[in-house]
Structure prediction request, 88 residues.
Amino acid sequence: MLATPSAARSLLLRAARRTADLGPSAARAVGSTRSASIEPYADYGKAVFTGRVADEYLKKHGSSGDILDDATWTQTHSDTVAKAVLDW
Prediction:
């Protein structure tokens, strides 16, 4: 459900009043930001089914990694790619 602009303003005003009622330390806590660490994502993208990796497994199923270069593989070779990914 999408909020209307007036509903969003109302929510913001209520939140600001509650924060003001709690005192200055609460206002600092609400207004503070934290930096997210990218450390958990250090390995993101290292295991991707493309290139030589895909070619190796697709050859076992009678195809090659070249089929992944054309976006229509999802319509024409989806079963072959699925089997190769399962083997991977």
Observations:
- The mean pLDDT is 82.
- The CA atoms of residues 19 and 25 lie 9 Å apart.
- The two ends are 41 Å apart (CA to CA).
